[in-house]
Amino acid sequence: MSEQIFIGTRKGLFLCERNGSGWKHSEAIFPGVPVPMLLKDPRSNFLYAAAEHEHFGTKLHRSEDGGKTWKELESPVYPEKPDDAPLIVDPWRKAEVPWSLKKIWSLEAGGPDQPGVLWCGTIPGGLFRSPDHGETWELVRSLWDRPERAKWSGGGYDFPGLHSICIHPQNADRIAVAISCGGVWQSPDGGENWEQTAHGMSYDFMPEDQGGADPESQDPHRMVQCEGSPDRFWIQHHCAIYRSDENGRNWKERKEATPSGFGFAVCVHPKDPDTAWFVPAQKDEERYPVDGKFIVTRTRDGGESFEVLNQGLPETLAYDLVYRHALAIDASGERLAMGSTTGSVWISENQGDSWDHLTAHLPPVYCVRFG
Amino acid sequence: MPSISFSPNIRSHVDVDTCEVGGDTVREALELVFSTHPRLRSYLFDDNGTLRKHIAMVLNSEPVHDRNQLSDPIQPDDEIFVMQALSGG
Q1: What is the ipTM of this complex?
Q2: Chain B residues with CB-CB distance to A55 below 8 A
Q3: Are B87 and A55 an interchain contact pair (Cβ–Cβ within 8 Å)?
Q4: What is the CATH code for B3-84?
Q5: pLDDT tens by residue, B9-34
């Protein structure tokens, strides 16, 4: 099992390691600076962190020694908007979608046969590729220039955000990304061509004949792919939990999800595609645990049924929300880690059967990743 | 020559001391600093070349008039001060 956990928060990055007396977290790295996204590249063991300075913009940093020292890299930069590029406005807010980096919202490593390749998803919706461990970045214009982008909209943020990137474990040219709110896009050829594959999803508050089932407008909050069974994807959508058994196509709602189909986070067991975890919440704008009972749910049968996991979680009323990147599972499939908006972090050594409360005193947690 | 200096918070990220610069405008003076401290640019401007909204440019104790082009003219005894706005949460 992984003995390192990296926690990105509203006020810095914390490294968490286990020693003889249990898990301990470090002092803040980048203290006071929001760290919305992290990546521990399993190929190089390099650690990447996005530091979102409120005054100075988003910077990307890389550590080659496990977080002891850091080098600031070039952040992904949107090119200058060409004169002939169409004006695209957010469909709801009617504000022009800028060609400008607002947030680094996902970071993933390329395939094992692509040393140095990294992918970065951003707000306002651009996907970037680096061929050289993050030294340089290029906007993937084949996706950014799709005319359907005019139908993408912001969810909780002002502009669309690309928050999930799934690289096929056996063929790194097969890429799937999820966008709030822009559905699911897949490329079979390393990002040269793209196809919308969010068919099957819908909003429960919008009639289908009013666009409620339009793939381009869907809001998948988080998408994950089973490493050992890569045709299986899970999505925690704005309105429901969805599963795909067809490589991210033909999504089927798991109507049995209780106590709510709403949430942000999902993770899937790396070998067992039928086992996945969720953190349900009250929708729509409330976004706290249903009835103030903070729980994790787990399915072991592909979403036919959901267990409530609450051993070690608060027994009193709690109002923690777990953001989309703040629930993680390690490569063994045994250990999970989870951080909340109220600064708590829990670790489970047994697939969520019980949880240990590491701390209640971190800043709001944005992302959790295993080393 | 005009001088340009930066607030401690900015200097905590980019090692740039107060220096004398040439140029006829605030923009030209800044560009001269960027030529020796290229990493500073992204701290002050976004990827559209727009001055970040939390960056304040002060010329002789007054906010610059032209935040878009930074075309305010500068004279040999002028002092430019660059700082971040007071905000956060």
Answers
A1: 0.78
A2: 9, 52, 54-55, 84-85, 87
A3: yes
A4: 3.10.20.30
A5: 899 999 999 999 999 999 999 999 99
